[in-house]
Amino acid sequence: MKPVDIIVKKKFGGELTRAEIEAFVRGCLDGSFEEYQLSALLMAICIQGMTDRETADLTMAMADSGDRLSLSQIDGVTVDKHSTGGVGDTTTLIAAPLAAACGCKVAKMSGRGLGYTGGTLDKLESIPGLRTDLDADAFIRQVNRVGLAVIGQSERLASADRTLYALRDVTGTVRSLPLIASSIISKKIAAGCESVVLDVKTGSGALMPTHEESLHLARLMVRIGGMTGRRFSALLTDMSQPLGAQVGNALEVEEAVQILRGERGGALLDVSLALAESMILSSGLMHSQAEAAGALRAALESGSGLEKLRAMIEAQGGDPRVVDDTGRLPCGEVRTDVPAREDGYIGRIEPQDVGNAARSLGAGRYRKTDVIDPGVGVIVNKRVGESVVRGEPVFTVVSRRDSDTAEAMRLLERAVTVSPEAPDPIPLIHEHIGPDDCAGRNRGDEFA
Ligand code: URA
Ligand code: CA
User: Fold this and answer.
1) Is 161 a catalytic residue?
2) How far apart are CA 135 and CA 96, in angstroms?
3) Mean per-residue pLDDT of the chain
């Protein structure tokens, strides 16, 4: 089986066999495909698409290309959540403790990756002392004892994905439904959870900005996940503006703590509750949405969600007192407001610009080796649709020095539009996609 024959077959829209797909994935690891051949095949897949069967075979071959974690030593059904990524997207730090307080066994592996702000790992590591490099035994013990653990993803999980993602990034082949789905699902399969709740974002700040493409991605991932024998479900949620009101690592931990203390609500809480509800239902712990919603409200009101977060922080070596006093988190000393230029209604807050502003301050990475400053970021004081008067601060930049803020101020000025009339409201949660909602929708043309 020569690489060039597989490339040509896909170039003309052929359906690859399992053996051909396995040869491709092996080729990432043993050098039997040159990088230019991998790149050519990625481009052919990007343009021609894959059937569900090909995508599932690619997913399993990638899951088998590195270490696989066995979570069979965890009592009960293990559950993970995964977001396709967004700005102010701190749902893990809220949904995971609340779901654990309701009895879920949350075993979450997070990637670090590049991004506007750090990933969940970077947010957690802004808590003094907290470690995310637990080994598999410690991870399993902690999930059994506390009900949740969030650790860094091993470099050896789905090894082929590392090679492929790096090539996709520089060959214009990131945005492909089968390539995204196989990349995400293979890592979830290798990480071992029995059920997975996906938060697929839609809107200008999402991986797939259009509603249609995001919905296709969500349905595809739920179907492919199901074909591998695990329980996958998904929510399609809004990322047309930042989800939380604080963007930046310690700032996001602070907001999560305040939400779990019952001191603030809003869109971030609403999406977190919906995700936690899906985690409870897909674990099979409860069987109706109303029952799960009631249990979650009780976990929020009694503070048992907050106590789960405290227990997790303590188990991972962090300072648990941050949940009582967020003043223990690192925080830049300088605050600079970005005022509204006119009276009216907030018409748009562009998540990419807010994310890039936070990154320019040091909250995110441009290169893998960049060191994050956990204490800087952007506070978003308004949401789309709210009224605003000229001079009122729309954003507050949190930085170390005045001289660090110029680029952030420029991006934030650009991020917001004020309109004379309130815009039509955009739904926060567009769809719930369960395993039964996408059966039979396996037309190849949906994923081109
Ligand atoms: N996240 C992933 O892990 N893989 C992709 O391909 C896209 C987003
Ligand atoms: Ca189990």
Assistant:
1) yes
2) 20
3) 95
- Single-letter amino acid code for the residue at 293: A
Closest among 356, 354, 351 to 338, alpha carbons compared: 354
Query: Looking at the domain 331-419, which fold is it?
Result: Aldehyde Oxidoreductase; domain 3 (3.90.1170)
* Ligand 1, atom 2, residue with closest C-alpha: 184
CATH architecture assigned to 3-63? Up-down Bundle (1.20)
Residues lining ligand 1, judged by CB closer than 6 Å? 179-180, 183-184, 207
Which CATH number, 3.30.70.1130, 3.40.50.2300, 3.40.1030.10, 2.60.40.1190, labels domain 78-325+430-438? 3.40.1030.10
Residues of the chain with pLDDT under 50: 440-448
Q: Which atom of ligand 1 is nearest to the CA of 182?
A: 6
User: Strand order of the sheet with strand 334-339?
Assistant: 246-247, 377-380, 393-399, 334-339
pLDDT of residue 438: 66
Q: How big is the CA angle at 119 (ends 265 and 181), to the nearest 5 degrees?
A: 100
Q: Report which ligand 1 atom has the smallest distance to the Cα of 165.
A: 6
- Catalytic, out of 39, 83, 126, 183: 183
**Domain assignments of the chain as residue spans, ordered by start:** 3-63, 78-325+430-438, 331-419
- For residue 286 the two structure tokens come to 């409860």
Residue nearest to atom 7 of ligand 1 (CA): 180
- Name the active-site residue from 81, 168, 188, 365: 168
- Encode pLDDT of 88-112 as tens digits: 999 999 999 999 999 999 999 997 7
Tens digits of per-residue pLDDT, 127-158?
A: 999 999 999 999 999 999 999 999 998 888 99
Q: Are 56 and 155 in contact (CB under 8 A)?
A: no
User: Ligand 1 test: best mutation among 207, 208, 217, most atoms within 8 Å of CB?
Assistant: 207
User: Which residues touch 214 (CB under 8 Å, ≥6 apart)?
Assistant: 200, 201, 202, 206, 207, 208, 236
Q: Which amino acid belongs to residue 392?
A: E
- Measured distance CA(108)–CA(59) in Å, rounded: 19
